[in-house]
């Protein structure tokens, strides 16, 4: 006896509350549904349906069996959907919101490979350092960079990577202003400020001897756009703080130089956030999996 088929027929019978209606739902005859029920009861050794009255009702054993049927059918269908999704090439529109650092400064390191792997995904990328409500604004997934653990929410969060926060400046600025050797020496330098809402007005720097230094940031230049801060650092206007991943290419080329590399400003964490659902959209799963692989290998 095909037990899964028997469970589906029994579930349909319970939902329809009659043999004839269940047969219509399944494209089977009344007698076929009745015959399947008898075979199931015989295999289980218990009565599942009361036959002493014209009104349809389940026996206690039938109620328990039906609960198990619902659970097993749901699990089998979920597995089938998951395997089907894996076979299908993700396609169609995917709305993603990312910080400016990922959507502009880091974009050359990941977008070409993503487009090559998933040519049928229509990626609509929104770049902003402002908080975005995924559900209210209709985004499928968000990438966020945070120096602190994310607050609890109704969203699923996957940690992609962590990156050290580093101080950098252009060679031209350091040639003119000198290379600071200690955190205290930063007081005589132009320390560029990232002035997003709730962002600190000072750097907290831990020296190699574990002493903590608080360095006030300059009022000469402040911006709420990481791209403007990046451009200002490249232009030689002062020292700025970025995640190491954001400035990795510039450090390799020598257009930016590490300042106080022996000190630490902490670490920032890269997260992917997406709505909680039983079945994650294949496009969302593909994008998050790709970004996790990208950060793991780079």
UniProtKB/TrEMBL annotation:
PROSITE patterns: HTH_LYSR
Cell division is among the record's keywords: no
InterPro entries in the cross-refs: LysR-type_TF_proteobact-type (IPR058163), LysR_HTH_N (IPR000847), LysR_subst-bd (IPR005119), WH-like_DNA-bd_sf (IPR036388), WH_DNA-bd_sf (IPR036390)
UniProt GO MF annotations: DNA binding; DNA-binding transcription factor activity
Domain HTH lysR-type: 1-59
Pfam family, one: LysR_substrate
Keyword terms of this UniProt record: DNA-binding, Transcription, Transcription regulation
Keyword DNA-binding: yes
Protein name as catalogued: LysR family transcriptional regulator
Organism, scientific name: Pandoraea commovens
């Amino acid at each position: 006896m095909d037990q899964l088929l028997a469970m589906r027929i029994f579930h349909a019978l319970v939902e329809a509350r009659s043999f004839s209606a269940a047969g219509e739902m399944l494209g089977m005859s009344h007698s076929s549904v009745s015959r399947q029920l008898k075979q199931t009861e015989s295999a289980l050794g218990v009565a599942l349906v009361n036959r002493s009255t014209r009104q349809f009702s389940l026996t206690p054993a039938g109620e328990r069996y039906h609960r198990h049927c619902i659970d097993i059918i749901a699990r089998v269908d979920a597995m089938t959907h998951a395997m089907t999704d894996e076979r299908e090439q993700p396609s169609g529109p995917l709305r993603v919101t990312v910080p400016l650092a990922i959507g502009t400064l880091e974009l050359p390191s990941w977008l070409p490979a993503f487009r090559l792997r998933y040519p049928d995904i229509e990626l609509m990328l929104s770049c902003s350092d402002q908080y975005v409500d995924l559900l209210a604004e209709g985004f499928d997934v968000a990438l966020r960079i945070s120096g602190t653990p994310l607050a609890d929410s109704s969203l699923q969060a996957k940690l992609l990577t962590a990156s050290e926060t580093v101080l950098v400046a252009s060679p031209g600025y350091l040639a003119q202003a000198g290379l600071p050797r200690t955190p205290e020496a930063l007081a005589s330098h132009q320390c560029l400020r990232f002035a997003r809402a709730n962002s600190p007005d000072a750097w907290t720097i831990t020296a190699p001897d574990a002493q903590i230094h608080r360095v006030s940031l300059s009022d000469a230049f402040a911006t709420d756009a990481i791209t403007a801060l990046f451009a200002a650092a490249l232009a030689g206007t002062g020292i700025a703080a970025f995640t190491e991943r954001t400035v990795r290419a510039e450090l390799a080329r020598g257009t930016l130089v590490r300042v106080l590399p022996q000190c630490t400003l902490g670490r920032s964490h890269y997260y992917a956030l997406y709505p909680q659902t039983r079945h994650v959209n294949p496009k969302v799963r593909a994008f998050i999996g790709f970004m996790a692989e990208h950060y793991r290998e780079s």
